[in-house]
Amino acid sequence: xxxxxxxxxxxxxxxxxxxxxxxxxxxxxxxxxxxxxxxxxxxxxxxxxxxxxxxxxxxxxxxxxxxxxxxxxxxxxxxxxxxxxxxxxxxxxxxxxxxxxxxxxxxxxxxxxxxxxxxxxxxxxxxxxxxxxxxxxxxxxxxxxxxxxxxxxxxxxxxxxxxxxxxxxxxxxxxxxxxxxxxxxxxxxxxxxxxxxxxxxxxxxxxxxxxxxxxxxxxxxxxxxxxxxxxxxxxxxxxxxxxxxxxxxxxxxxxxxxxxxxxxxxxxxxxxxxxxxxxxxxxxxxxxxxxxxxxxxxxxxxxxxxxxxxxxxxxxxxxxxxxxxxxxxxxxxxxxxxxxxxxxxx
Length: 346
Hints:
The chain has helices at 10-17, 23-51, 102-109, 182-189, 199-205, 258-267, 329-341, and strands at 66-67, 75-76, 82-85, 90-97, 118-127, 130-141, 144-154, 165-173, 193-194, 208-210, 217-222, 226-230, 242-249, 272-284, 287-297, 303-313, 316-325, 343-345. It is of the alpha+beta class.
């Protein structure tokens, strides 16, 4: 707002005294001039606003709930979750972890043993979307001196992005320290932002595709390794049918050991009152596999039925576990099998 002081207006007073009868015209000219000046001021100010830098937006690497505005020439990495400036050997690594991981990471951050990190400094670090701890220090790897920053934070209760702990690690060699300065790195960390799980992106990162969902919905994706499907209004899998599809490396060395391997997988699950009813080898979409059917008890005491399919091949295995209340098992089993047969290895 521009305020114009209207006292002592000498131009108009002089016009009144000159006896030429031009007072009205001078007043009109003065008002016109003032309007012109105001228009110019507004035009210049609008020009400054329009010409100002565009507001940057956080960049989220594929599948991650965590992103930031990458500094300088850092781009989304194709080798790890985060960003990197390949030419300057700068790396920004982002760990997207469950909320339960926070206590252990916090204990490690404040532990005495920091794996060769020197000149350690710890501080609370407020950023645009929360509060965290920032740990800084220096180290040396293979003769290269590195400057490091670690931002540890977790989302608050009630946040739209719940159950999240993140550790953002920045690594800058001395050769790039004049460009990626402490101020530049801190500015980037200030922009750390969160988003709800990008399920489509996460599913695209899995080593398999779900061609048939049979009415189930994706509840959670474990990036790179597996997915949980369920059928119900909420995410409490103790109250509704669910499936877990995951992959693992290794497996039994001999065909004769596949049955024992499959049973060990199932008995290691946190299931109450497990009782195996059937255990036999089978073919699963053309590949060697093993099926186990069993019964168990839910946390509320209801009888459950379970099937586990393990598919072997290629130096690894796929494990599919499906669980439902025994009272609705027959209908659910048909759907479980449809999902199983619709899984396509990428």
